[in-house]
Design a protein that fits this description.
Elements (H helix, E strand, L loop, with lengths): L5 H66 L1 E9 L9 E12 L4 E9 L7 H10 L6 H4 L6 H13 L4
Antiparallel strand pairs: 1-2, 2-3
């Protein structure tokens, strides 16, 4: 029997410690992999529930935003002149009444608003027309994408930007 020196024992101990650490990591990985399929199912269910809640929250926010814009607008009217010349050659006038603060009365009052170009419409009014009152969109523009007012206006604005006017 040969006696090992302390240096040899130290080296063997270091090798053993490295192997033990690796084996411990492998065992932990194996345990995580065994539990992974049940964790996947749990996370999938949790994700589906969160997605459903998010969609409900977005629906509520959308409805509230829509109601807030609708509360600030009334008597929306779009008039078209020279529509027979096509949507790009026609002229449009958008009239509505909007709430504005009157410093003399110290409250918000209905004020008439007018825009003579669709591209000058405030974004919230344009969104209101698309989502709440698409039937008020001029017929010559609505015909650019029947049944889809957002696409119709998009095509109209793209044609304006490209200089087809």
């Amino acid at each position: 029997m040969t006696d090992q020196t302390s240096a040899e024992l130290r080296a063997a101990l270091a090798t053993n410690a490295v192997a033990l650490k690796k084996a411990t990591e492998d065992a932990a990985l194996y345990d995580r992999l065994k539990a992974a399929s049940s964790e996947v199912r749990r996370l999938k269910q949790e994700g589906d529930a969160l997605l459903s809640k998010m969609q409900e929250a977005q629906g509520r926010e959308y409805a509230a935003e829509r109601a807030a814009v609708a509360a600030r607008i009334r008597n929306l009217r779009i008039t078209t002149a020279n529509a027979e010349r096509g949507p790009l050659q026609a002229s449009y006038s958008v009239d509505w009444e909007g709430l504005a603060y009157d410093s003399n009365q110290h409250c918000s009052v209905w004020m008439p608003c007018n825009v003579t170009r669709l591209s000058s419409l405030p974004q919230d009014i344009l969104v209101h027309i698309i989502r709440s009152e698409p039937e008020k969109l001029p017929q010559c523009i609505a015909e650019l994408a029947p049944g889809n007012p957002e696409e119709a206006l998009d095509r109209y604005f793209v044609a304006l930007r490209r200089g087809y006017l």
